[in-house]
Structure formats: structure tokens, C-alpha cells
Design goal:
Blueprint lengths: L1 E5 L8 E6 L11 E3 L1 E2 L9 E9 L15 E5 L5 H10 L4 E5 L9 E5 L10 E4 L1 H13 L4 E6 L7 E7 L6 H14 L4 E7 L5 H5 L9 E2 L4 E2 L11 H17 L2 H14 L7 H8 L4 H10 L12 H13 L6 E4 L2 E2 L15 E2 L4 H8 L15 E5 L2 E5 L2 H55 L1
Parallel strand pairs: 5-6, 6-7, 7-9, 11-12
Antiparallel strand pairs: 1-8, 2-3, 2-10, 4-9, 5-10, 11-15, 13-14, 15-16, 17-18, 18-19
Helix pairs in contact: 3-6, 5-8, 6-7
């Protein structure tokens, strides 16, 4: 399932550039078109994608053609954008550009795919209707229009990560678990700031935040969705757990917070009541200090009505980033677009580190001279108990064994030929010796007579 979520205020800097022929886009008065990159697929940060533009009016159904690494331009339609991307990908395209079929500005929307759906390995993006119609018209006169898109992030010595999440959202923990072994190795070269998504009660605001709501605290200033609907938990527990996790980060180092998050994901979703306390004890977090941090963050003694300093700061960060979608990541202040997770990874999954798209983007956000050594790691790994385990690809393993087997066969065959040659030589030498003896005896016989 694909969602189109309004995100007023976000500006996307990625441009589709017309390389040749030389054309001027009426809407921008230059040779570039602003694009909105989809938040799914593989986005090759630090690189460019170039190719000839091919217009296909409808990409909702499988294409019975070979596209030979072209860039496909298509109209938006009622089918899912991800389905369109999969169809052109299977036909051999290297990128998909979708023309938005409404007059609204594309910068007001975010294109995302639900986790667990099919995985696209090409970048997908959207352009405004007026720019798309311009390209479609020009392709009639210039069938060989070449375009290029460069995917860049702001680079810094220390990379700044802002991660938007919710404490009771299972998908929020996937990135944390998968990126944890990498984060530990570059911990001194990162700043990591978790920002917990929250809402507020508009009706409560009108009454001066004097009302109570089971999904809110502080009179309705900070609210969350009910995590289990008819279950025992409410949005209030979600907000209080958000606050607990923020206090754990304030009172401890980042790795301790990260360990708590991973354990929370493993044990607390099915039985929440005493789980946070049990986890904190297991990893030596001072629960008394955390409880004091929670209490002290309120401006008064009543959590139901009084404001909260920590959550107020979180609200301000959400508003600064105009962000309402989670889990999501900002890298050096720029909204990361593309796959955030490994594809259904678990402890038994072997993955190629080069295919972890978000790691590649984070590495590209370092200035070249400060790029961590980890960013040059290649090969196959699995994640177990928060650690990277070097693995051999099954294909490589098979090839190694095939190579060993071929070497053994070659060695045995060469040995056979050598032994056979030596035996034949010995036989020839023995026969030759016997022939010489017989000839000598033959020539001696007349003399004997």
C-alpha cells in the first residue's frame, strides 16, 4: 500500500537536468526541473543517474518490451506508484519519472511505500504536471532527450542524524536494530538525536489545556495514538514511555539508550507493565534517576495538567522540521529519501553491506577526509545480538567449493597422466632392454657354432 502524505513546507533540492539537446524549461527558465524523490527504492546518494528519456503513457501493467537502461517518463494514474516502478524496473529501466496529474505543487507531498511490500531497486520521482507536459511535447520533436539527476547530501565532518519515531511503533525499531552495529563503530563521528512524534488536542487548546484525555498528558498538550485500540494501553502510556526513553538518553550515553531500545522492542510489546523496569535493571540503568528525570521535567506536580519541558522541546523540533511521518531520518538537516530498512533482515539473513542504502547515504554525508573506515567495508554480513558477523555469500561458498573440487580433479588427472607416462616409459625401457639382450644372444649363436 502506498500513502501520499501532506508535508507543507519541505523543499526538495534535487533537480532533473536536461543534458541534450539544449532546452529551456518554461517553469524554471533554465535547463532543470525540480523533482520529488519517492521514499522507496534505492536512491544512489553521492552519484548521478543519466540516460535517454522514454515516454510510456501507462506503466500500471507489466511491459512486454526491453527498455535497455533508459529513464522512463510516465503519467500518474490510479495504480500504485510502487507498482509502476516495479513494472519499469522489470523491463530494464534505470529510473522512473512520474508526471503528477494534478495542478498542486509536488513539494507538498511525500511518496512512501508500506514496509514489507515489493522492493524497488531503482529511484522513483515525481515532477509537476506543467513540466511533465513540456517534456512529453518535446519528445515528439526530440526523441533522444538525455537527462541526468544527481543525488547529493550536505557533507560535514561530524554527521548529524535526526530520527523521528514513536516508542510503540514496531517499524521505528527496525532501523535502530539494523543500524546499531554500524553506529557503534562510528559513534564518535555521529550526533544522533531521536525525536518522538506527538500530537496535541485542538479542543483542549481552546479550553486552556484543562481537559483530560486518555491519550494525552499535560491537559492535552502532548498526545499519541492508542497503540492497542481495545487493549489495556492508551496513548498516555505511549507519551510517558517516550518521555522515559528521552530521560534514559539524557542520563546515559547513546549506546545505553540504544541497548534499552533493542530490548524494549524484543520484550515489551507483548507485556508492557513491568517490562521497562526489568530492562533497565538488566543493563544497569539507574531507575531512580530516570523516574526523577520524568517527574522533574513537568512544570508542576500534576502530569495530567502541567506542561512538560522535555516534550515541549520535542514539539519545537517537530515543527522546525515540518515532520509528521515516522519512522523517518534527516541527515545533516536534509530529509533522507529511499529505503530505510534492510529487506526483511533477521539473524539468519545474509546481506551485502553495499545494498544497505541508508548506510551509503550516511557515509556520503561525511566530508571525504573524515569518512569512517567502516564506510569502505564491502562483503556479506549478518546481524546477531547487535554485532556484524562476516559471512560468505552462499554463491561465493558454492563457487569456492566448486573451485576446490575442480582443483582436486585437475590434480588427480594430472597425477594420473604423470603416473601413466612414467609407467609407459618404464615399460618401454624394460622392453627395449629385453630386445637388446635377445639381439645380443642372437648374434652370439653363429660364433658358438
Amino acid at each position: 500500500m502506498l500513502f501520499l502524505i501532506s508535508l507543507i513546507g519541505i523543499v526538495y533540492s534535487t533537480q532533473l537536468t536536461l543534458v541534450k539537446p539544449s532546452l529551456i524549461v518554461p517553469s524554471t527558465k533554465n535547463d532543470s526541473i525540480p523533482v520529488n524523490v519517492a521514499d522507496f527504492g534505492y536512491v544512489p546518494y553521492g552519484r548521478s543517474v543519466s540516460g535517454n528519456l522514454t515516454y510510456i503513457e501507462n506503466t500500471c501493467n507489466p511491459l512486454n518490451i526491453t527498455l535497455n537502461s533508459t529513464i522512463v517518463l510516465t503519467m500518474g494514474s490510479s495504480c500504485k506508484f510502487l507498482s509502476q516502478a516495479m513494472n519499469v524496473q522489470l523491463a530494464g529501466a534505470k529510473m522512473l519519472v512520474i508526471v503528477y496529474n494534478h495542478e498542486e505543487d509536488i513539494s507538498n507531498f511525500l511518496l512512501i511505500a508500506e514496509y514489507g511490500s515489493e522492493q524497488s531497486f531503482i529511484p522513483t520521482m515525481m515532477i509537476n504536471k506543467v513540466d511533465g507536459e513540456f517534456l512529453i511535447e518535446k519528445l515528439k520533436s526530440f526523441p533522444d532527450i538525455q537527462v541526468s539527476v544527481t543525488f547529493e547530501l550536505k557533507q560535514q565532518k561530524i554527521v548529524d542524524l535526526q530520527y523521528f519515531l514513536s516508542s510503540f511503533d514496531v517499524f521505528s525499531y527496525l532501523f535502530l536494530e539494523e543500524f546499531f552495529p554500524f553506529a557503534k563503530q562510528m559513534i564518535n563521528q555521529l550526533t544522533f538525536n531521536p525525536i518522538y512524534i506527538q500530537f496535541y488536542c485542538k479542543e483542549c487548546e481552546k479550553t486552556g489545556y484543562k481537559a483530560t484525555n486518555q491519550n494525552c498528558i499535560s491537559g492535552g498538550r502532548y498526545c499519541a495514538q492508542d497503540p492497542d485500540l481495545d487493549g489495556p494501553l492508551t496513548g498516555r502510556e505511549v507519551i510517558m514511555e517516550d518521555l522515559r526513553q528521552l530521560c534514559i538518553l539524557q542520563q546515559n550515553d547513546l549506546i545505553t539508550w540504544w541497548n534499552y531500545m533493542i530490548l524494549f522492542n524484543q520484550f515489551c510489546f507483548n507485556d508492557y507493565q513491568d517490562c521497562p523496569s526489568t530492562i533497565m535493571k538488566s543493563i544497569s540503568i539507574n531507575e531512580t534517576k530516570i523516574n526523577y528525570c520524568i517527574t522533574d521535567s513537568f512544570t508542576g506536580n500534576d502530569t495530567l495538567y502541567d506542561d512538560n519541558i522535555i516534550l515541549k522541546e520535542q514539539r519545537q523540533q517537530i515543527m522546525r522540521n515540518h515532520q509528521v511521518y515516522w519512522p523517518s531520518l534527516f541527515i545533516n538537516g536534509e530529509f533522507y529519501k529511499g529505503d530505510l530498512f534492510l529487506n526483511n533482515v533477521d539473524e539468519s539473513t545474509i546481506f551485502n553491506v553495499d545494498d544497505f542504502a541508508v548506510l551509503e547515504a550516511i557515509c556520503d554525508a561525511f566530508l571525504a577526509e573524515f569518512r569512517p573506515q567502516l564506510c569502505d567495508t564491502t562483503g556479506f554480513f549478518s546481524i546477531k545480538e547487535g554485532e556484524l558477523t562476516d559471512q560468505k555469500s552462499p554463491i561465493i561458498t558454492v563457487l569456492i567449493w566448486v573451485g576446490i573440487s575442480l582443483f582436486i580433479c585437475f590434480f588427480l588427472f594430472a597425477s594420473f597422466l604423470l603416473i601413466r607416462r612414467m609407467m609407459l616409459k618404464k615399460v618401454r625401457d624394460d622392453i627395449g632392454s629385453q630386445v637388446d639382450n635377445h639381439l645380443k644372444n642372437y648374434f652370439r649363436m653363429p660364433q658358438a657354432q
